[in-house]
Design a protein that fits this description.
The complex is a heterodimer.
Chain A (H helix, E strand, L loop, with lengths): L1 E6 L5 H11 L3 E7 L3 H10 L3 E2 L3 H6 L4 E4 L6 H10 L3 E5 L6 H13 L4 E4 L6 H11 L6 E11 L8 H4 L3 H5 L1 H11 L3 E9 L12 E8 L3 E11 L7 E9 L2 E6 L4 E6 L4 E6 L4 H15 L7 H20 L3 E2 L5
Parallel strand pairs in A: 1-2, 1-4, 2-3, 4-5, 5-6, 7-10
Antiparallel strand pairs in A: 7-11, 8-9, 8-15, 9-10, 11-12, 13-14
Helix pairs in contact in A: 1-10, 4-5, 5-11, 6-9, 9-11
Chain B lengths: L1 E5 L3 H12 L3 E6 L3 H11 L2 E3 L2 H6 L5 E4 L6 H10 L3 E5 L6 H14 L3 E4 L6 H11 L6 E11 L11 H4 L1 H18 L2 E8 L9 E9 L4 E10 L3 E9 L2 E6 L29 H13 L9 H20 L3 E2 L1
Parallel strand pairs in B: 1-2, 1-4, 2-3, 4-5, 5-6, 7-10
Antiparallel strand pairs in B: 7-11, 8-9, 8-13, 9-10, 11-12
The structure holds nicotinamide-adenine-dinucleotide (NAD).
The site of nicotinamide-adenine-dinucleotide (NAD) has 27 residues of chain B, from helix 1.
């Protein structure tokens, strides 16, 4: 039985991961800690577990693994505490806003000999897994280009505050696609150009809310990506992850969450898409639980998280300098 | 008014019909392939010839319509202007911006009307998007994503597949979207592009653009000639108060023939409407000749569109953003 704790419910994904822990056999949501005590207590109550206000006590406890779902800028200090306490870690994406922080986290976990996973659940999405399989069998020939999107509705709050998030929509919505392409194509990113805007929310944000990226991968694969919080409040769903792969033998289009029924509910006065597809979070959390039990690295590693952060950080640099920026791989 | 049509295949067929719909008589059909000219001349009871330059000089003609491959546009525009004819020229205006300027100068000197067929400005779905934006339905627009293309077209003597001639999907196809963005959102600031035609030796093209407008609006534009079949247009405009989406796959009609023609086929997107956008551009052109209206698209707009795609291709070549 793996004892898993959750650190911080700042990120809404915490609620989904908690629900997964409740649902999965062989694990338990043993404790919750949060620097926002009220939020932590409420969540602990909701998921019928205990809230531990003292961080030392939380980390001294019988926990085997910890899921970190705090604000991006707090990932590193929290991960370092967990590593020092010998806990396996699953960290919300982006693993950290800066390359230096992400690197430090990878190093700390290596030194403490604990597993570090990055919460990039798209790798557990059935349509994306199928796309990966089909492309890796070579049915579409060599992939020479791809155009991607990761749109969302505005999460607001700390997400739109640079000091806590380290960046806006581009920080939030580039890493999924960057990781998917690395995973599926088995290639690394080499350069990025980017235009950023803070222009979809009347400048209420202290971050960008849209980014248009042009990336290059090893072997000259041409990739474009749109990262945004462009989905209107009245949009029928939260957003999307889409990729169009252009191969020498064909084209593969995947709209990962386009498994829905259209619902027209007069009480809501807006059309809604009710999703009926698989739950990628469940695959992610199940993998983490197994990694804890088997004392191995989670499938999507801290290094994968670092690689994705390298792409995002370079994109911000490119937007600032208005130049194409090389993406350096660090250790 | 009488029309001479030069280039009588894909677009030539469309323009013969549209000019006729507008009450014009298409009386001369010029195509270097006489078989093609004869077939259409028979249908419209006109005369078939092979020499486009001779068509320009005919004294019994008022309008020259040019629907030949892009690299030939300039010589026909100049010949028609010198002969005092009004001109309808397919997009892309000419193969280079300097050719466009030459064409504009020739028309100006001859005091003839020179119209370039940027037909997307006349497409009902694009006009509907423009109207909704202008009505403030999405607040202040901040981002646009446009997507266009499908199968790599063939054309006569496979000219589309010779990227020197056609300029690839960026120059020939994406030009529609870049023109429309400038039409709706004003002048562009800088452009970055990746296009397969400059790198991979693949028998198709795929082009991806990031564009910044002077207004601050950001656009991602995708052009594809990489698909094994089909043609699709997608558009999305996002603003501070909402968003707009269009997808040509969600059309009122879908047809599947049991007998499938083999080999690639160049199909225009079709969604039946009251008046074809290709006819609307002819109506605009004719109204301009008669001095009853100013057209939605000018030769200067068409030049700017060519400058935008040239900048995109320069960016694709150098790997750097290009200022506009
Ligand atoms: N607006 C649109 O939607 C749209 C769509 C397709 C093409 N186009 C443009 O229209 C133009 C024509 O394209 P198309 O698809 O009809 O090409 P096409 O190859 O199908 O037709 C061109 C015709 O011109 C003839 N021709 C070639 N050179 C000639 C010459 N020197 N003199 C006389 N005839 C000549 C060819 O024999 C052929 O019949 C191009 O500029 C293209 O970019 C516009």
């Amino acid at each position: 039985m793996a004892n898993i704790g959750i650190m911080s419910f700042a990120h809404m994904h915490a609620y989904s991961y908690a629900a997964c822990l409740k649902q999965l056999p062989g694990c338990e949501l043993t404790a919750v800690w949060d620097d926002n005590i009220k939020r932590g207590r409420t969540a602990a109550k909701q998921f019928e577990t205990k809230f531990v206000a003292n961080l030392d006590a939380f980390l001294d406890s019988s926990l085997d693994g910890v899921i970190i779902t705090s604000e991006n800028m707090k990932h590193r200090p929290m991960a370092e505490r967990c590593a020092a306490a010998g806990k396996w870690i699953l960290c919300e994406k982006p693993i950290a806003p800066s390359v230096a922080d992400a690197q430090a986290m990878v190093q700390a976990c290596k030194k403490a000999k604990v597993g570090l996973g990055t919460a990039l659940p798209c790798r557990f999405s059935p349509p994306l897994m199928e796309a990966c399989t089909q492309i890796q069998t070579g049915e579409f020939g060599e992939i020479v280009a791809a155009s991607c999107t990761n749109h969302g509705q505005s999460p607001g709050g700390w997400f739109a505050d640079d000091a806590l998030s380290g960046g806006g929509a581009t920080m939030d919505h580039t890493v999924h696609v960057a990781d998917l392409l690395r995973w599926i194509l088995k290639k690394e990113f080499v350069s990025v150009y980017c235009e950023l805007g803070n222009q979809l929310h009347n400048k209420e944000f202290k971050t960008d809310d849209v980014g248009s990226l042009q990336l290059e991968m090893e072997g000259g694969v041409q990739v474009s990506h749109v990262a945004s919080w462009s989905r209107a409040k009245s949009f029928p769903t939260w957003g999307d992850v889409t990729i169009e792969f252009i191969g020498t033998k064909g084209v593969l289009w995947v709209d990962a969450f386009n498994q829905k029924i259209n619902v027209y509910n007069d009480a809501a006065m807006k059309a809604e898409w009710a999703y009926w597809g698989g739950n990628p979070d469940l695959g992610l959390v199940a993998d983490f639980v197994r990694a804890v039990e088997e004392r191995r690295e989670p499938t999507v590693t801290g290094l994968d998280g670092l690689r994705a952060t390298e792409v995002t950080a370079a994109a911000y640099q490119a937007a600032k300098t208005k130049k194409r920026v090389p993406i350096k791989r660090t250790r | 008014m009488k029309v001479a049509l030069i280039g009588c295949s894909g677009m030539g067929n469309v323009h013969a019909q549209m000019a006729t719909n507008c009450g014009l008589k298409v009386s001369v059909f010029a195509d270097k392939n006489i078989k093609i000219a004869k077939a259409i001349a028979k249908q419209y009871k006109g005369e078939a010839i092979t020499d486009g330059m001779a068509a320009c000089e005919r004294t019994d003609i008022d309008i020259v319509a040019i629907a030949t491959p892009t690299p030939t546009h300039l010589m026909f525009v100049k010949a028609a202007a010198n002969a005092g004819k009004h001109i309808f020229c397919e997009k892309p205006f000419c193969r280079t911006a300097s050719e466009c300027k030459e064409a504009i100068a020739a028309a100006k000197k001859a005091k003839v009307k020179l119209f370039v067929g940027h037909v997307v400005r006349y497409f009902q779905e694009f006009e509907a998007m423009k109207t909704q934006i202008a009505a403030g339905k999405i607040g202040e627009p901040g981002f646009a994503k446009l997507y266009r293309g499908g199968l790599l077209p063939m054309g006569s003597e496979s000219w589309f597949r010779d990227f020197e001639k056609s300029g690839g999907v960026t120059f020939d196809c994406m030009i529609h979207d870049l023109d429309w963005l400038r039409y709706v959102f004003g002048e562009p600031e800088r452009i970055f592009c990746q296009a397969l035609m400059y790198t991979k030796r693949v028998p198709f093209d795929y082009s991806q653009v990031t564009l910044r407008m002077k207004s601050g609006l950001i656009a991602t534009v995708i052009g594809t000639w990489a698909h094994p079949h089909g043609f699709q247009v997608k558009a999305e405009i996002c603003g501070s108060g909402g968003m707009i989406q269009f997808n040509s796959n969600e059309a009122p009609m879908a047809a599947m023939k049991r007998e499938v023609k083999t080999g690639p086929d160049w199909a225009l997107p079709s969604s039946p409407v009251d008046i074809s956008p290709y006819q609307l551009e002819w109506e605009d052109f004719i109204g301009w000749i008669r001095d009853t209206r100013t057209p939605r698209v000018t030769a200067h707009d068409a030049l700017r569109a060519v400058q935008m795609v040239e900048a995109a291709l320069q960016s694709a070549k150098t790997g750097r953003p290009v200022a506009l």
